[in-house]
Recover the amino acids of this structure.
């Protein structure tokens, strides 16, 4: 019997780069903020040595910490792009998006010496035009489509015309979409791919949903950010209550939950998105 596949993915960015806090933290102040991403990525890397994963890395972080990106690659994980400046696909002009995609790909390739073929859009803000641009820029897959529609930041895509197979969705001969895993209950889509929802839901409930997805779909795609395991990060106290709740909910317990999840899914095949898609 073939093992179910677990695709563990990390969006590498720091606590001050999240969309949630954009109204209070301008990108031109990023350089003045306390950089905590390196320590948090190390903590994740120490958990993941036996579990090949995919790291979608923000170009801004790669420029500051090239040695960290090299280490991620040398420890057996896939290095992919999360864009350069964390601008949402629908917030920037197509020409600027193209520039961002080319620049971030080149930067990561120069650091690792390997080709970068995957992309995850900031806040899953993918759309049809961005997919086209990605392919033009030499990417071979996108992993940004999140079918949970209640979050207004997420992008919208109609993928119904494309062929869906056991490894995602074939957009063209040479380009795939690998959507985030969600859980469907009575024709409603529930967010089950990780991040804040993973921190919010009780672990045993989350695990049930993952089990359901694995048995139906044969694979499960999980994501999180390094700042989600960092309870010691500076607090953005001027942010509104909802934004603070979203960002700070259960930071203390997330690391232990991840340890548990890895242990409970050791029977799965862990692989990188690129290996999984064979691209
Ligand atoms: Zn992000």
């Amino acid at each position: 019997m073939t093992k179910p596949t677990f695709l563990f993915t990390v969006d590498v960015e720091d606590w001050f780069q999240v969309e949630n806090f954009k109204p209070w933290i301008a990108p031109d102040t990023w350089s003045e903020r306390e950089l905590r991403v390196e320590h948090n990525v190390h903590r994740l890397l120490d958990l993941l040595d036996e579990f090949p994963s995919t790291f979608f890395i923000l170009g801004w972080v790669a420029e500051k910490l090239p040695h960290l990106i090299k280490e991620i690659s040398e420890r057996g994980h896939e290095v992919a792009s999360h864009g350069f400046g964390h601008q949402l696909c629908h917030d920037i002009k197509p020409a600027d998006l193209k520039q961002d995609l080319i620049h971030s790909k080149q930067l990561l390739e120069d650091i690792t010496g390997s080709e970068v073929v995957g992309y995850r859009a900031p806040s899953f803000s993918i759309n049809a035009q961005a997919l086209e641009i990605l392919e033009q820029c030499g990417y071979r897959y996108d992993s940004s489509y999140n079918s949970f529609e209640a979050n207004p930041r997420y992008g919208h895509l109609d993928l119904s015309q494309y062929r869906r197979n056991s490894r995602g969705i074939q957009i063209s001969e040479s380009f795939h979409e690998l959507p985030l895993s969600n859980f469907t209950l009575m024709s409603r889509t529930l967010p089950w791919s990780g991040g804040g929802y993973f921190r919010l839901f009780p672990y045993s409930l989350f695990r049930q949903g993952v089990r359901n997805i694995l048995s139906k779909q044969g694979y499960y795609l999980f994501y999180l950010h390094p700042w989600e395991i960092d309870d010691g990060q500076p607090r953005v106290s001027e942010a509104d209550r909802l934004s603070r709740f979203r960002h700070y909910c259960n930071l203390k317990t997330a690391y232990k939950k991840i340890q548990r999840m890895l242990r409970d899914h050791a029977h799965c095949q862990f692989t990188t998105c690129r290996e999984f898609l064979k691209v």
Summary: The first strand starts at residue 5 and ends at 12. Residues 5-277 form a domain with the TIM Barrel fold (CATH 3.20.20.370).
